[in-house]
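Quick start: what a row looks like.
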Amino acid sequence: MSIELVKEQVRRFLSTDTPEVLAIKGDWGVGKTYSWEQYIEEFKIECALKSYSYVSLFGINSIAELRQTTFLNMIDTKRIGEAPNIKGYSKKVADLVKDTKIPYVSKYVGGIGSLINSVSQLAMNKTIICFDDLERHSKGITIKDFMGLVSFFKEQKGCKVVLLLNEEAGDDTFKDYRKYKEKIVDRQLHFEPTAEQCFDIMFAEDFEFRDYVRDCCIGLNIKNKRVIRKIVEHTNEFLELVDGFDESIKKQVIHSTIVLSWCYYCHGADEVHIPEFAFVNQSGSRKENEESGWTKEITIRWNMTLNRYGYGYTDEIDLAVARGIEQGFLDKEKLIPLCRHKQREVEIQHASAKWDEAWKLFHGSFDANEVEVARAMEYGMRDIADSTSCSQYSSGLKVLRGVGQDQKADELIDVFVEARKGNPEIFNVDSITANPLSIDDEKFKEKLREAYLEFKPKPTVEAILKKREGSNSYNMSEVEILNELSTDQIEEMFRDFKGEELTSNIRTFMLLSSSNADLGKKVGEALDRIASTELNKSRMAKFRN
């Protein structure tokens, strides 16, 4: 049922004094409570009954406590929408005690709680009562007893009772609700707003990129108002950090924030159709993983969902957004350098008409124009080779290989290397500073590493050991330099180390050798030779742990 029809039915319900029970059911988080509060505040002047009480069953442990809470929450319908007033609550209890014809309240059986419980039975006449969160009731309240209380309010006290619930909650006790609702509930409405309506209910007012955020939420069919609120909060916070960057970067942050938030907050509610957060939060393309439970079938299904949304793969900016969602805040020190790098790529695309045209042609149709796309992509890549980043150039290689132009892609790798050999640091694919964004083409990576070794002045072994002292990081070019040493040379170096440098330098050798089997073998043989005496064998223990 549309929200317009639900609203009209609520208006009709409130405008008569006929005792009846109205049930409004809907999924968790779609805004049943939010909309009910809006409706009753809007229609409070039309309410035929002049008292109103709202009660959530969450946290209430008995029918007696429910009766008391219903009474204590009762207000005049004219005050609907006003903030709760503790003075009004206290006055209600004081007036109750004053008007009760019992000489010694303190001696009354059960004390003030029992007094309220008893007198509330008399006071709750002709009242609009809203019971919310029925599916979250405690074990101390059975559905049978609750429905009995609802019937009592309707039949004996002339009340109009509204039930807000998720009937599909899966609780076995809802079998009892379905059993008794036929006798007690007069009308049942299905509150089923669209994703558009859910967003508009929450955010009618305009804010930066509202329409784009709305379109993204609708694209994923997000209806849970709590998730929508978190998404907008995350989006606004993240946009503050990327203010000043190109609109395309801002939209990437928004686009990623929404899909990652959706997976983070909603996967548990629908594990079949909503991808797991960890599945999306992996660099590059998403692959099946039996250990994680991502079977081929699940991977295909989740990837189809993400691809329909337009989320192809996860890059470093997306990973930074994902960490921000997990932590509750974005790490500015990590995000801003990535955005600056991306900004340079955007500026290059705007500056190169050929590169820009290649992407317009690629995205502009579904025509079978592979030859035309490949030719345009080649022209564009040649035009930007002397100024672009490795990640941006790699995106063009990916397109060429995708249309079967592997030979042309390999030729363009050579074009890039030749154009940039005067600045060999660009070839350092293992440097987060030189290449903070991912490079997807593996052959390109391999050629870049080779070029880095060829054109970058080689650091000495001593310089590498000094640079990596106390560090757990390294790059593959350094590993290759150490691997040029023979086992004899490594042994000789180890024996020449003295004092504190002995432990530090050997640990550095072991760290770098962990990624290269040949170097690891040489280091291991050198250590074994040195450990040939009992004394040195004992000294080696610290390196074997």
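That is the whole record. The first helix runs from residue 3 to 14. The radius of gyration is 34 Å.
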